[in-house]
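Encode chain A's predicted structure.
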Amino acid sequence: LDALATFEQAAERLAAMNPVMLSSTEVLDGLRRLERAARKVPSSQHWLTQVGIEQGLPAQLGYTGVKEMLVDQLYLAGGEAVDRIRGARSRAPRQTHGVASEPKLPVLAGAQRDGLISERHAVSIEKALDKCSHKLTMPKLHDLEDMLVTAAVGGCTPDDIAMLGRRAYEHI
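Encoded structure for chain A:
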């Protein structure tokens, strides 16, 4: 948890800084760097959530489920908790016999871990894939995952991704 302590210290330093003396170029560079760093955070949130699920943490703490624990312990809204659980199940590696296996959606997980897409992008992609999963086999589903992630990395907004997902569903 040393990395988490370092992250907390960096976040406190950022919150305490006064950017008013930065040039326009420095402000834009700062915004880009901060956005990219912030986009990496959900990857760790999902992995910790998945490990908590695998360890039976909700039951250990007396909760009936993961959502209840996240809402009570982290003060998340119900929808946020559901999205966190979905992200943990599809984007976090699973532990099997002490070895981390690939996430269910490896392309999506990698793009988020690298800070290339936002959490809203990831949720839009997951929802599109969930909807299409009833009609597609795994190789085609992975192709759709790759296409949607590529679109998100290429500049499509989360709303654009949702529209692409709906169009893909209509065409299959």
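The longest strand covers residues 95-96.
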